[in-house]
């Protein structure tokens, strides 16, 4: 058993808010659904859940601080590893994010209520941010029966399994003492529905369309998961809903590519402009921009237009990096050919009628 403080990356003096924040980040990072190609994600996710189970409960945290991992070692049951604390499995929030952990312990639980959707945005929207409306179906309480599951005007009976308590006591092999868990027959309500609601068929929950307005921050990257808290499904009427997880998909741009906070693009320039230099108009995210091409620019040279890239979250912007692609003319008039021959002569080059440099010229250039 690893130190739960190390697992969540918090100090021993961390507050409950700090622990909860660290847990949420770690749970999202290591969730198996987020790491489908990583077989070790499941174990890391269980480890994060187990660490939060201890540190989120003041009594269990005190027991760990006092006895370390031995406080939860079943081999020391005679010493009461929970330090005299009655262990209540409801503390594990079995309808919440601990579902995978408890499932590994042989305890059947429901899902987490998380709803996952994708939103496609343009390159410009990813750079400068935008607001999107998302409509989706989520599970909510049935309004016809008030989420009770019973037909209006009907009565319920006390659950015979839990005697109306909504909880049953069981002896779990790995725990040294009897523990409690919600009654599976009545779903922890303590009541049995005799005449179920026709709308929800006794479940108390129905799918309903929901629309949310989501603000996409500037500079967001492709594949980023934006979380809308409590925007997911209600697993039970008496519990808070899960989250809505929105995966951002940025559509490719016909001209620009992204590299961190910088933008890359390729711009064709003429031989004359590459040799003599000058100013040209180029496309930017805001429209047209002016770029200075220095004299003697070589093919493949990267020219930089500062503060025309992706806005940074801490202020400022990246740059626009322009690759100069020197275009060589393929069709020349007789006059243009004569001018190029004249230029070659002034540069000390001898060009054969075919247009190819002579062998001696190539040899001279090779060793010059």
Question: Can you tell me about this structure?
Answer:
- With about 375 residues, the protein is an alpha+beta fold.
- The protein folds into 4 domains: about 5-85, Orthogonal Bundle (Helix Hairpins), CATH 1.10.287; about 115-250, Heat shock protein DnaJ, cysteine-rich domain (Chaperone, DNAj Protein, Chain A), CATH 2.10.230; about 255-330, Sandwich (HSP40/DNAj peptide-binding domain); about 335-368, no CATH class.
- Helices cover about 25% and strands about 25% of the residues.
- The chain has helices at about 5-10, 15-30, 40-55, 60-65, 100-105, 125-130, 270-275, 335-345, 360-365, and strands at about 115-120, 130-140, 155-160, 165-170, 180, 190-195, 205-215, 225-230, 245-250, 255-260, 260-270, 280-285, 285-295, 300-305, 320-325.
- The protein has a 4-stranded mixed sheet.
- α2 runs antiparallel to α3 (about 40-55).
- The relative contact order is 0.10.
């Amino acid at each position: 058993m690893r130190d739960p403080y190390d697992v969540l990356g918090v100090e021993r003096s961390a507050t409950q808010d700090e622990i909860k924040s660290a847990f949420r980040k770690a749970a999202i990072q290591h969730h198996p659904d987020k790491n489908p190609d990583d077989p070790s994600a499941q174990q890391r996710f269980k480890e994060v859940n187990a660490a939060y189970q201890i540190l989120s409960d003041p009594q269990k945290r005190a027991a760990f601080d006092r006895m370390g991992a031995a406080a939860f070692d079943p081999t020391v049951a005679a010493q009461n590893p929970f330090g005299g604390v009655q262990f209540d499995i409801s503390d594990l929030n079995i309808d919440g994010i601990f579902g995978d952990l408890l499932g590994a312990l042989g305890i059947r639980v429901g899902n987490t209520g998380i709803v996952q959707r994708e939103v496609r945005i343009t390159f410009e929207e990813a750079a400068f941010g935008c607001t999107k409306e998302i409509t989706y179906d989520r599970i909510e309480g049935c309004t016809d029966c008030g989420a009770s599951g019973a037909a209006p005007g009907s009565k319920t009976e006390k659950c015979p399994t839990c005697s109306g308590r909504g909880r049953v006591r069981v002896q779990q092999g790995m725990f040294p003492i009897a523990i409690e868990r919600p009654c599976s027959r009545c779903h922890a309500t303590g009541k049995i529905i005799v005449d179920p609601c026709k709308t929800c068929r006794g479940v108390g929950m129905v799918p309903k369309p929901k629309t949310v307005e989501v603000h996409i921050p500037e500079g967001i990257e492709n594949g980023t998961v934006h979380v809308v808290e409590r925007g997911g499904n209600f697993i039970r009427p008496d519990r808070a809903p899960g989250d809505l997880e929105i995966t951002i998909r940025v559509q490719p741009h016909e001209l620009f590519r992204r590299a961190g906070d910088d933008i890359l693009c390729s711009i064709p320039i003429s031989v004359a402009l590459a040799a003599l230099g000058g100013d040209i108009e180029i496309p930017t995210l805001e429209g047209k921009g002016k770029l200075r091409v220095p004299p003697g620019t070589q093919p493949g040279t990267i020219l930089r237009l500062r503060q025309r890239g992706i806005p940074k979250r801490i202020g400022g912007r990246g740059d626009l990096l322009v690759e100069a692609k020197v275009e060589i003319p393929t069709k020349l008039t007789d006059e243009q050919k004569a001018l190029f021959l004249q230029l070659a002569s002034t540069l000390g080059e001898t060009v054969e009628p075919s247009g190819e440099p002579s062998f001696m010229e190539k040899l001279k250039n090779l060793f010059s």
